[in-house]
Amino acid sequence: MPIRHLDTYLQERGLIHEAPLTSLKDTRIGIDAQQWFKTLLSHPNYKEPFVSVTGGAPLNTYQHMERELRLLEQHRIKPVFVFQGLPPTRRDRPFFLFPNSTDLLENPMLKLRTRDKGWEKYVSGDLEGAKNLFDQSSSVEPKDIFNQIHRLFRTRQVEYLVAPYLSWSQLVYLERHPKKHYIHSIYGSNELFLFDGVDKVILSINFERGLIKFASKKEILIDTGLTPEQFTDLGILSGFELSPSFPPFVERHEHTFKHAVDLIRRYQTGLSTVMAYADHPMVAKTGYLDQFCRSKCMIKFSLVTMAEEGKVMPLPIASPTSSSPIGIHDIPTDLHDVFSYKFPDEIYFQLCRAMISPTLLNVLATGLWVEQPPLCGGETDDYWSFVRESLTENPTSPRCVALSLIISPLHQFWQKKPISAIYYFDPHNNYTIPHASQTTVNLIEKISNWNVPAGVVEEELKRQNSSTIDISLCLGATSQSHLAGRTRTPRSTSQTNHKPLEKKDEVVANTIWRFLELRGYLHSNHQHTIQGKALFLGLKESKVNDKLQEPLLLVIEMLKMGCLHSNWFGGRTWTGTAHLGSEDDKRNMLLVMRVLSIVPLSFKPMSWQGPLSRDLLTFNSFTRSLTKSLRLLIESIVLSLVLRNDTRRSREDGMEVSLSLPFQNEANTGMGILFKGYADAMVCSQSEIEAETEIDKKEEMVKELKEDILVGAQDGFPMVRDVRAELNRGFRFWDAVMKVVRTLKEEKVVNNNLADGFERADVWLKPLRL
């Protein structure tokens, strides 16, 4: 959310100018990735209103991003994207929001209520009303498709970096660098005008018309009659994404930017303005004076990554703007209250190169893991216990272990810092995450013997006739005792001859091996556990091109966590659940729907056009949270390799490593919905089939019926690349899952009743196979 009412003011005062896109020819433009992505999602031609109820990422965003990058390239404009890093710390408790949080864009609980109303309209048949409400409740952020964007940037050789904190200040630094102008202009939101040394900012780019719109801070200052310092105060009082509006402005129903300008003129400074309203009930209640000072400090002393040194420094130190530059002694000593205590520079460097995302670092910085509600609302005890016990608070849970891996090599200040979780379903209480427990510490110490050199990795690639280092290759390399023995390699120390891991392939392979041991697929002697054996056998059942490695591992994880079954979550049925046939038929269909929905569907680049399922969205919340948690565990492993000197510390290939590791993307509900549509049509025709007594005719009738249904399904799901091929891929995944379940049952690892439920579903599914 940009500075409130500023865009309207600029428009009314004629301060927004147009210029041809060609005016940027042969220049480098710094782009705020957050603003670019938001603009892309809000474009009328690119909108995907059903993302909030199908889960996963937008289906056509990648194509539109590529199109705009291609247009910039055609105009000989070199983009440099800057992503948001760690958010500044906040004093307010999560889920207890400022008055202006009634804004739908800011309040996740309000989005949930809007989405619930959308479901009500969907059930009543008001599809257009539902579509509008679902669109309003969408919450897709760049972080949700972080890896997709980076993969596109790698393909098109686009420059990028992740800021240590604010993308705005990093862009300002790049433009006003004292020796090298890394960029010649900035495209972003109007918050950029808050910073010193900024003049022109490109506010929008219309690729269809080949035009840019921009404004000049110098002109704004002349028009308002304010100094740069006063304008910064004005912007903070008006409110923007990271700073709440001055409470008296919120209460004023017809508040305008001009009114805020007049108030600053009257009191001269923002601080004086706030002091003048010190007795205002909401100013006192929200502690707005403290918030104003924190926001001012956040802007004036914003931390940036310096280009040459790679150090993180306050903006006025990194890039002075006056003849009397600010010295280090002028920097507030409590800057850590705004931006967190400082991490080692190498952590910021790996963040900058996108080896890791900001999520875990933010948890460590704030001491809080804030659990936001999932798309389905997360209303059931099943989901609450899953998030708490399986993902977060258990000493061996992925989130707890991920934090421990990052913290253990750091200074004791970080090691002793308590970290707790705050959940949307119990916002008043903090729950300890035991990252320093003996169980967790012992677990992460076990993986220190994974330092397999490049020679062994290359041998395995040849032996397995593979070109990719992935879960399957790493399991294959440990499938026999003599193979596993080669991988037991001590850390690089003065007492050993082993060198730190150097090549990208070494880092990727050892990260996956460490992950597999942490999650219980490999023993400490590097041989397969029962779960590892089941996963390996399941993968041998599947085709390489089906890309089922991650979904199959998710199945085993969800079986361990008790959330993959045919029971109703919360003891209730939801829209779009299995509803045809007997009770057994419903449960069989429900189990198959859920299992198949773990597999990502192959889509054409177009928005979702098909039925919806709240039941599958509820299940998708488990899948999505688990996928994200496992990805964070992967990131923590690779960062710990760097921090512990198990690999070369000054790595420039952070993004390459990151894009080679698993769990980059999350599946939506598509495959499950597609199967349900197909299965419903088959079940509805069951009486017609049973009426035919001759076996040959019945078989022919079934064959023709399936063909007719597939044709109809392709029309009903136009965004699916190939309905037949996708359903067959889903059925092959089911076969691999059955191999896993049967292996686990033989080893008495999985509950017999649960395994029998899979067997019944397998029998039920057979007549539906293509």
Structure report:
The protein is of the alpha/beta class and 770 residues long. The protein has two domains: 1-338, 3-Layer(aba) Sandwich (Rossmann fold), CATH 3.40.50.1010; 343-527 and 614-655, no CATH class. The chain is 51% helix and 8% strand. The chain is built from 37 helices and twelve strands. The chain has a four-stranded parallel sheet with strand order 4-3-2-5, with helices on both faces. Strands 1-7-6 form a three-stranded antiparallel sheet. Helix 10 (228-238) packs across helix 15 (288-300), helix 13 runs antiparallel to helix 15 (288-300) and helix 28 runs antiparallel to helix 36. The longest helix has 30 residues, at 614-643. The radius of gyration is 28 Å and the shape is globular. The protein starts with 5 loop residues before the first helix and ends in a 5-residue tail after the last helix. The model has no long low-confidence stretch (mean pLDDT 92).
Question: What is the element layout, followed by pairings?
Answer:
Elements: H1 6-12, E1 17-20, E2 27-32, H2 33-42, H3 51-54, H4 61-74, E3 77-83, H5 108-124, H6 127-136, H7 146-156, E4 159-162, H8 167-175, E5 185-187, E6 200-206, E7 211-216, H9 217-224, H10 228-238, H11 247-251, H12 257-267, H13 270-276, H14 281-285, H15 288-300, E8 303-305, E9 312-314, H16 315-318, H17 336-339, H18 345-352, H19 359-366, E10 368-371, H20 381-392, H21 398-407, H22 412-415, E11 420-423, E12 426-432, H23 438-445, H24 454-463, H25 471-476, H26 481-486, H27 504-518, H28 530-541, H29 549-561, H30 583-597, H31 614-643, H32 654-659, H33 670-684, H34 686-691, H35 695-716, H36 723-746, H37 752-765
Parallel strand pairs: 2-3, 2-5, 3-4, 10-11
Antiparallel strand pairs: 1-7, 6-7, 8-9, 11-12
Pfam families: MKT1_C, MKT1_N, XPG_N
InterPro entries: MKT1_C, MKT1_H3TH, MKT1_N, PIN-like_dom_sf, XPG/Rad2, XPG_DNA_repair_N
Domain Post-transcriptional regulator MKT1 C-terminal: 514-766
